[in-house]
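Following up on my earlier thread - several people asked me to post the actual chain instead of describing it. Fair enough. Here it is, all 268 residues.
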Amino acid sequence: MVKTLIINKPLGKTPLQVVEQYKSDNPEHEKTKMAYAGRLDPMAEGKLLLLLGEECKQREKYLGLDKEYEFEVLVGMSSDTQDILGLTDNVTIPDNTENLDTILDKLRGNIVLPYPVFSSKTVEGKPLFLWALEQRLSEITIPTKEVQVYKLDLLSQKTIPKNSVLQTVQERIARVTQVTEESKQLGRDFRRKDVLQKWKENIESTKQDQFMVIQLRCVCSSGTYMRTLASMIGQELGSAGLAWSIKRTKIGKYRQLFGKFGIWTKKY
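Reply from S.P.:
Thanks for posting it. Predicted structure:
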């Protein structure tokens, strides 16, 4: 019996929604107990590891698997979620990125990163995102985690017009499934109305005609947030940054093999 599957989580969906869709599309698994090991945020896409049946009891041993990501940093804009699904601040774009290699080298190896304030990490019995939504972050100390960044490689750099930035944000946020159930309203439907309004205000008011986007590949230990790396890269450039896109491309020792859901079974 198959114990694990890796399926593709599309942009805008939560891991739970993807699992439910997979069961719906695969009736033979309709009653199979499933759990995922290593979540992906709504604005991230890529490989999601599923445990089936009795293997769900072994979830802890899968949570520590290394990961590989390809992600993009939008330089010149920050948000409280460190990705596009957050309330933004417009920041001056740096004149150049000549020191980018030095910055990337600084972020390789063993490093200590703060947890994103919009994450499910628990502090005093409550997830960080609730502290943030309640505007009570000043009452707590943001926890940190030591992680390993084995590789952090520059893939490309480009610039995009500011109008394209706003259009892309609107299109991507529109793909996030709306939260309507009262029992799931802790995140206030991702504040999407306020988020979109803030993006519109900042893009229309900025004097910048275009924004720089840096594409990177990262191989890292479990628990390394690409959102946090994107924010740190922007800050190190003397500006700000957020995760423009995030795609998980590998989990542990698996690689893609076949199937519309990207089922992975072989070692890479």
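The mean pLDDT is 89. That should answer part of your original question.
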